[in-house]
Amino acid sequence: MTIPIPAEDPRHVPNRALIDPSAITENTRAMGTLLEEQTALMAVVKADGYGHGMLTAARAAVEGGATWLGVAHPASALALARAGLDAQILTWLFEPHTARIVLPEVIGHGVEVSVGSPQMLALVAEAAREADRRARVHLKIDTGMGRGGVLPWQVREMGATMGEDDFLRLAGAWTHLTSADDPEDPATDQQVELFDSACEALAEEAGPIPLQHLANSAATLTRPDLHRDLVRPGIALYGCPPVPTDVPLRPALTLTSRLAMVKDVPEGHSIGYGRMRTTSRATRLGLVPIGYADGLHRAASDRCDVLVRTEHGDRRAPQVGRISMDQIVIDLGPDSEARAGDEVFLFGDAGGDPNGPSAPTAEDWARAAGTIPYEVLTSVSGRVSRKVLS
């Protein structure tokens, strides 16, 4: 087994991603209040828990009431299974080479597996025989996403195959909604109609479907009619709701750095590659040793703020000029009392004076970069050390 060893001692690097598991626990609990008693909650902890640490996120979500955990890759599912968490696990994304290596052990640990093609189903059946354990299978149905999943007219064939194989058991059927974050988009109802008709056909071939699940974070928040047997929130559990909501959710990751240098510059001084910004007045600039190699999107250059914490209080300051690989420049203002070493909050929960300015959010950076908070959170790179708060 290969264990990565960081090249840099995290104590010597100023950049930190502060992870607050209690936020994930509270967010999970808050999402659970939206559900009827018979509906279970699957915490999606793929992509290393959206950058928060998969096991940290999983433990926090289970403490908040999640009884399922969802991850894309079987290797992640295996790590969760070995951790001994009190939750059922679902994994859904694999290709033939790694499937033959890891699926037997995954199935042997009782992890449930999604399939989206006849070939994937054959791989699961082969792995189940090797593990000498019946595989619990969730059939993914492509109702319009165009990624994984069988097309609705293929479900009868898949159901018949599962019904004929003693090593396969139908545990669920599911689909992924393309546009649930836009409640006005008719695509969601169209997908639901396709899903329901496909499930009817599947049940005729394979018998009752124990679990049906469609709802991601957005649908969990806005469409109680789609909660069915199980919901699969992801981004909301980390404090970034994809739709406006009154559900109290708070960010679980805070990205920080420190001022490396402060200097005064005159009016008309250029900043950054391509002279992207020129000062409109004499001002004080701050240099922060964090850049796009750490996860800040270069496309957000000159379009977002940060929060600087000084001994005289907190103050928002715009990031100015082009974001570089290792550093950004912020305009502290001509009267700033900030000094080298002062803490800088890029996004998240800065705490501090509740009546003072707050830190920017991952959503703020996403808007500035023309992307989504999911990408902002998962882009925080491995060279940014993680500190899990207790």
Word description of this protein:
- Helix content is 29%, strand content 23%.
- With 390 residues, it is of the alpha/beta class.
- It has 2 domains: 21-238, Alpha-Beta Barrel (TIM Barrel), CATH 3.20.20.10; 253-388, Lyase, Ornithine Decarboxylase, Chain A, domain 1 (Beta Barrel), CATH 2.40.37.
- The longest helix is centred in the middle third of the chain and has 20 residues, at 187-206.
- The two termini are 29 Å apart.
Keywords:
single chain, 390 residues, alpha/beta, TIM Barrel, Lyase, Ornithine Decarboxylase, Chain A, domain 1, 8-stranded parallel beta barrel, 11 helices, elongated
- Give, in spatial order, the strands making up the sheet with the most strands: 11-14-17-16-15-18-10-1-19
Summarize the helix and strand pattern as letters.
EHEHHEHEHEHEHEHEHEEEEEEEEEEHHE
Kindly report the oligomeric state of this protein.
single chain
Radius of gyration: 24 Å
Low-confidence regions: none
The portion of residues assigned to helices is 25-40%
CATH topology of the largest domain: TIM Barrel
Biggest sheet architecture: 9 strands, mixed
Query: Count the strands?
Result: 19
CATH superfamily of the largest domain: Alanine racemase
Number of helices: 11
Assess the beta-strand content as a share of residues: 15-25%
Q: What structural category arises from helix and sheet content? A: alpha/beta
Cα end-to-end separation? 29 Å
Integer tally of domains: 2
Principal-axes geometry comes out as elongated
Average pLDDT figure: 96
Q: What's the CATH first level of the largest domain?
A: Alpha Beta
